[in-house]
Amino acid sequence: MSTTPHPPRHEPEPGAPRDLVGVGIGPFNLSLAALAHPIPGLDTVFYEQRPRFDWHPGLLIDGTRLQVPFLADLVTLADPTSPWTFLNYLKTRDRLFPFYFAERFHIQRAEYDAYCRWVSENLPRLRFRHRVDAVRWNPGRNLFEVDHTRLGPDGEARATGRTHTRAVVLGIGTEPHVPDPLRPLVDAPDVPALHAADYLTHRDTLLAAGHVTVVGSGQSGAEVLLDLLRHRPPGRERLHWIGRTPAFAPMEYSKLGLEHFTPDYTRYFHALPEPVRDRLLAAQWQLHKGIGADTLAAVHDELYRRTLHGGWPDAHLVPGVRVRTAGRNGGRIELHLEHVQQGTRSRLTTDAVVLATGYRQRPLDRILADLDPHLRRDSRGRPRIDARHRLVLDPAISATGCAVHVQNAETHTHGVGAPDLGLAAWRSASILNTLTGREVYRLPGRTAFTTFGLDQLHPHPHPCPQTPPARHPRELTPLADGT
């Protein structure tokens, strides 16, 4: 069997409406494009304003690994026979045997980025250097209109176009988040303060700085701290690592804990009342904002190695601290700190700051401005999203069968698994099944040993059913004694 993916057999008629338009080409919409590729007669196109696929290029630090197994590629968990699997990528590079002997379940980030770029360079219907400007509803044609602009190599607009489609899938990803107290630093062009997303671009400048402070106690903060530590001489580390969490805490990575990143938990979470979902998300930070145990161990090993000849490294790890304000003090940066538990305050003067303060979902408002009158929102003004990852629109629109799906913009409705790479293929397959109205990809009826909620206490009739039985809601019987 050939390992080279075949081009699609179906080509649309010029000007004909599309079945699906994808907005953004990150891992999630790339997964959707890969799984849509072999479906006969399905007409798709994906737009991305960047010139090529790039996945967090500023954080592809040597040796950093994905926090999910390589099976969480673009397609495997929905279709392991797809030509777009990570294993097939290795085969096209004659690297299967080296990978086999490496015995690595978690691959390097740079390798994942290279794999995704291979898919993006070989998959048809991807349009880079195309910016989507608006999505609107055309009631006369019962179709969505997608306005887009083709960009030149210089980023200047070259041509505009409009595509009509039955479905839109928004996968515009996230953007670096800078908390308000730290905003004055990044807004000042002459201050050496940057988000971790740009770390590698400015690493030489940071290594040359006298004292560096890393703000943020998640995985990115730990990786940046570790890389700086490894490149600064013993006794002259001059590093601070501060974060708001009460500890530099490991990510929850127990087998049953990981079942929060299954379709079973996603369905359970979506069915919860909105206030319960919001409380849960705030309490589950360690499921997705903690630090990998291997990274924590590597930080400790590096610090310990520097004590072998006596003395302690000039590196200070201080959790439970928030930055109240930040500004310049002469040619340096001054951070005004508050210890959350002690209630004490202090100042820290430093030469450079790396903000490992995470990412936020890009707002959908700009692209969806013309659809705003048709959107249904929750009590906090966020778009309502149904169980099939569709924005809840006016019944007049949804009755036509047209829909706007979202990828990684539904954490508030679908839980901590929304940004997780391990659910990418499952969500993409779910969207395609919904779009085509048939089971193009057979998805499992059960994915977790944990039973989330009493309404799921319905055992399967067979230990391993070949075709999962349909799930029907069943009325709960109150337990005795009011429990």
The amount of beta strand, in percent, is: 15-25%
Total number of domains = 2
Based on DSSP secondary structure assignment, what is the total number of beta strands? 18
Supply the number of helical segments: 14
Query: Which overall shape is indicated by the principal axes computed on the Cα atoms?
Result: globular
What's the CATH first level of the largest domain?
A: Alpha Beta
Low-pLDDT stretches are 7-11, 460-483
EC number: 1.14.13.59
Catalytic activity: L-lysine + NADPH + O2 = N(6)-hydroxy-L-lysine + NADP(+) + H2O
Cofactor: FAD
Pfam families: Lys_Orn_oxgnase
How would you summarize the topology of this molecule?
Elements: E1 20-23, H1 27-36, E2 44-48, H2 86-92, H3 96-102, H4 109-122, E3 126-128, E4 130-138, E5 143-151, E6 157-165, E7 167-170, E8 174-176, H5 183-186, E9 193-195, H6 203-208, E10 212-215, H7 219-230, E11 239-242, H8 263-270, H9 274-283, H10 285-288, H11 293-305, E12 315-318, E13 321-329, E14 332-339, E15 345-350, E16 352-355, E17 359-361, H12 395-398, E18 403-406, H13 411-414, H14 424-436
Helix pairs in contact: 1-14, 7-11
